[in-house]
Amino acid sequence: MLDGHEKGTYDVGLVGLGVMGSNFALNIADHGYSVAGYNRKEDKIKYLSEIKSAHHQIGMTQDLQILCQMVKKPRTIILLIPAGDAVDSVIEELVPFLETGDLLIDSGNSHFSDTDRRNETLKKRNLLFMGMGMSGGESGARHGPSLMPGGAEEGYERIKPILEASAAQVGDSACVAYMGAGSAGHYVKMVHNGIEYGLMQLIAESYDLLKRGLGLQAEELHSVYRRWNQGVLNSYLMEITADIFRQKDDRTDRPLIDMIADQARQKGTGEWTVSDALNIQVPTPTIDAAVMMRHLSAYKEERQEAEGCLHGPDKFLKKEKEQFLNQLERALYCANIVIYAQGMALLRQASETYAYHLQPQTVARVWKGGCIIRAALLETIQSAYTADPDLINLLLAPPLTQQVETRQADWRDVVVAGVESGIAIPGLMTSLAYWDAYRSSWLPANLIMAQRDYFGSHTYQRVDMEGTFHTRWGSD
Ligand code: 6PG
Fold it and tell me: Any idea what DSSP says for residue 309?
């Protein structure tokens, strides 16, 4: 029984008609492609039936076998379901109805190691598999997300026209490109999210400096972020931050931001970024700080108790407002550059470790539109990698070096202000420490090596000759 649908006529199948799935189905259908949608739950199907227009060619079923019959062969089926066990269950249920050469695309926020595992399993069954990062939230899915597909390249060629039509467009290019082999797509999305965490943390720190440091209220905060969004900090996150400060709470008529509990939650992609950065030994201290601060924010009760007994300086900043606002804008810009530098350095190493063959200029291009971390800065980043695709660290790209160098005095002043006032700004501070350590040919690691050798005979290398050395410390 085909539920009245025609057999083998739909361009693409889509499993999962939640908000993201429904929106992506509508987006694809807007561009003239037909979509066969599946959801186990009737209410989701009903909802999409109600909101789709007559011109949208979207058929729907609650039966996976029927879904597979509806899609043209060789089939392409996109999964837009929560990452984790659900993806394995759906794949297991789908596989008996698929044939050699069919393509499955997991577009959730799956961990890249799961994508590698699924890829291996499906390859043995002669099926093509791709892990595709999708960014942009509900509105991105509906009107043009940034898409980061990786895995089976032959599968990408098949789905490319549909992805290019439905992705965000910047200038004359679509924010989608084949990222690389295996789990490259999901890895790039994971790092996108790590950068997202870092940028959000920096904005939160600037808000703290302005709110508790300068005493700015929501209306004024709205103006500051709106102004910043018109300059070098222009980005999606700046734009929504400005909007957030204008939003009133329906219940109290106060600014909604003041009614939101100060405990940040997370689904885990930031942690995955930090964890794999540790695993492949790439320093990403600003992203680490962002994850750490989300954790610390969750300790609300402990923080409340501690505030009563751990004392520090008065949080109020003795600063001239306009001058400090300009300094903070410059500091934020430097720290933003450092976060992208850390994320891109992680991608560079991951590309080698996992044989992804990533093109940094392509990653930057795909992030220019549709995604959460889209920003004017990505234009400069893309140009830097186009000029030198082998650039080992973004901070070494001449235009970015110059942009940081000309702003660093203000960045240092802002960090000092945070330290003096006792407002925690770990993102701004660790970015500055990264910049200072990275540009230093000497670091005090010689002392760490001496200590290791002293207490554990771990040996050390010398600056004046080859070899491995050990000293019996403390004896003359
Ligand atoms: C995106 C976002 C999205 C992410 C949310 C929440 O690119 O559209 O990164 O994928 O799931 O932003 O993430 P956290 O719950 O971890 O903050």
Answer: H
As a whole number of angstroms, the distance between CA 395 and CA 384 comes to 10
DSSP H helical ranges for 209-284: 218-229, 236-244, 269-279
Ligand 1: which atom is nearest the Cα of residue 294?
17
Distance 21 CA to ligand 1 centre (A): 15
Burial 279-303 (b: 16+ CB within 10 A, else e): eeebbbbbbbbbbbbbebeeeeeee
Reduced to 3 DSSP states, what percent helix, strand and coil does the chain have, rounded to the nearest 5?
Answer: 55, 10, 35
Using the atom order of ligand 1, give the atom closest to the CA of residue 373.
7
Nearest CA to ligand 1 atom 1: 135
372 lines ligand 1 (CB under 6 A): yes
pLDDT at residue 256 tops 90:
yes
Q: Give yes or no for residue 267 CB within 6 A of ligand 1.
A: yes
- Taking the CA of residue 146 as reference, the ligand 1 atom at the shortest distance is 7
| pLDDT at res. 3 | 58
Structure tokens at 39: 């959801």
Q: What is the pTM of this model?
A: 0.97
In a mutational test of the pocket of ligand 1, which residue from 191, 274, 372, 373 has the highest number of ligand atoms less than 8 Å from its CB?
372
Active site positions, annotated: 189, 196
Distance CA 436, CA 283 (A): 13
Residue among 132, 138, 193, 287 to mutate when testing ligand 1 (max atoms within 8 A of CB) = 193
Q: Are 36 and 98 in contact (CB under 8 A)?
A: no
Work out the pLDDT band at 475, boundaries 50, 70, 90.
confident
